[in-house]
Amino acid sequence: MSRTDYFHDPDAPPANSVKVAVSALVQDDQGRILLIRRSDNGLYSIPGGGLEAGETVAQAVVREIHEETGIDVEVSELVGVFSNPEHIIAYDDGEVRQEFSICFRAQPIGGDLRTSDESTKVEWVRPTELAERDIHPSILLRIRKGLEGVDSPYFT
């Protein structure tokens, strides 16, 4: 399924859903960030996805990162809650979702890099190399807030 992201776009369709999503800033011992290239829109992103019934948000983070990247992680802290109503995600099945993502920091504890149906590329990227990747502004905000390492979580 493909998707189109609208960001502060007056021509964006009105949202018809809000779903809980999770994401995580994962850094290895060299400070590199785990990124995927999404198969649905071709943009680079930190890994994440939807919360499923019966799981905690931390369990969803662990599951989504493993599904999309092959990396096993341990969730360590909350980066923030990102709920910008000006970020609209339209799917080709008619769903038009308002952004709502809870972002965490997580540390890799095992696994091997691999792609999935949701990722066409998976790689460790130095923070200085982020500008070389096509990353949506909402994801860049999550990365920036995660790298800041402040004492209290960000929220919108």
Characterise the protein shown here.
With 156 residues, the chain is an alpha/beta fold. The protein has one domain (3-147): Nucleoside Triphosphate Pyrophosphohydrolase (Alpha-Beta Complex), CATH 3.90.79.10. Helix content is 16%, strand content 41%. It is built from 2 helices and 12 strands, in the order ββββββαβββββαβ. The protein has helices at residues 57-69, 137-148; strands spanning 3-7, 17-18, 21-26, 33-38, 44-45, 48-50, 71-82, 87-91, 96-98, 101-111, 119-125, 154-155. Strands 6-3-10-7-12 form a 5-stranded mixed sheet, sandwiched between helices. Strand 4 and strand 5 (44-45) form a beta hairpin. It is globular. 28% of the residues are buried. The mean pLDDT is 96.
Topology summary:
Blueprint: E1 3-7, E2 17-18, E3 21-26, E4 33-38, E5 44-45, E6 48-50, H1 57-69, E7 71-82, E8 87-91, E9 96-98, E10 101-111, E11 119-125, H2 137-148, E12 154-155
Parallel strand pairs: 2-9, 3-10, 7-12
Antiparallel strand pairs: 1-8, 3-6, 4-5, 4-11, 7-10, 8-9
Separate helix tally: 2
Sheet with most strands: strand arrangement:
6-3-10-7-12
CA-based gyration radius: 15 Å
* Overall form: globular
By helix and strand content, what is the structural category?
Answer: alpha/beta
The CATH superfamily is known as Nucleoside Triphosphate Pyrophosphohydrolase
